[in-house]
Amino acid sequence: MFVIGLTGGIGSGKSTVADLFAARGVPIVDTDLIAHRITAPHGVAMAQIAQAFGAEFVAPDGSMDRARMRTLVFGDESARKRLEAITHPLIRSETERETREANGPYVIVVVPLLVESGTWKTRVDRVLTVDCSVETQIARVMRRNAFTREQVLAIIARQATREARLAAADDVVVNDNGATLETLGHDVEALHQTFLTLAAKRADKA
Ligand code: ADP
Question: Taking CA atoms, which of 25, 99, 104, 197 is between 20 and 30 Å from 48?
């Protein structure tokens, strides 16, 4: 399967762009959804989380107590690493399974932290970065999540820089001021045709 890794900073428009590919019949594998699912009630990460952190981190319904875990890992880097040592391999294997089982000419894997975490870049065939200015990110996320400017800036500070994401990209969708669903639709359509061609070439070789 030909795999595109879709990335971008918070509020850049990853979900918006992924939806436009999905509308063209492209299967989407979303690593955020997978991360949520493995820590949902009786998700595959829960036994290990209970063992490593204690039963008090498991909510009565069998899901991870997210508020409690957030508080813990916020101030404790080693706890964050322990949690990630459990979740990251599971996210990776679930992503690989969903990618294998996807039906389509190619698949898009949405990986917000593609540049930041580990070996994602080597495990996709091509990286598509959604790009916009930091000011645009701030405005969008303040509106979408009702966050303060400082809250958004704190999240952005933990992510890779705009330059690092652009450096990792094979393709870029510019989603800044002036971009509308219509202009994004044109950009996505052009990329879709490119990806179809590349996927067909790959299939010929296989
Ligand atoms: P991400 O998935 O990268 O965090 P989203 O696709 O959720 O970003 O976009 C962030 C917010 O900005 C959403 O509320 C979305 O509807 C809005 N948005 C995205 N692109 C545009 C645009 N070109 N014009 C106006 N609003 C946009």
Answer: 99
- Domain locations in the chain? 1-27+106-199, 31-101
The tokens for 71 are 């508080």
* Closest ligand 1 atom to 112 CA: 3
Tens of pLDDT, residue by residue over 87-106, are 999 999 999 999 999 999 99
Is 165's pLDDT higher than 90? Answer: yes
Q: Which two tokens stand for residue 110?
A: 């949405």
**Tally of CB atoms within 10 A around 148:** 11
Q: Confidence band (pLDDT; 50, 70, 90) for 119?
A: confident
| pLDDT band at residue 202 under the 50/70/90 scheme | confident
Per the annotation, does 15 bind a ligand? yes
Q: Distance, CA 204 to ligand 1 centroid (Å)?
A: 37
Q: Count CB neighbours of 39 within 10 A.
A: 24
CATH for the stretch 1-27+106-199: 3.40.50.300
Cα torsion at 91, 25, 17, 80 (round to 10°)?
-10
Cβ(15) – ligand 1 distance below 6 Å: yes
Full-model pTM: 0.92
Judge if the beta carbon of residue 44 lies within 6 A of ligand 1.
no
Per the CB < 8 A criterion, the answer to whether 56 and 68 are in contact is yes
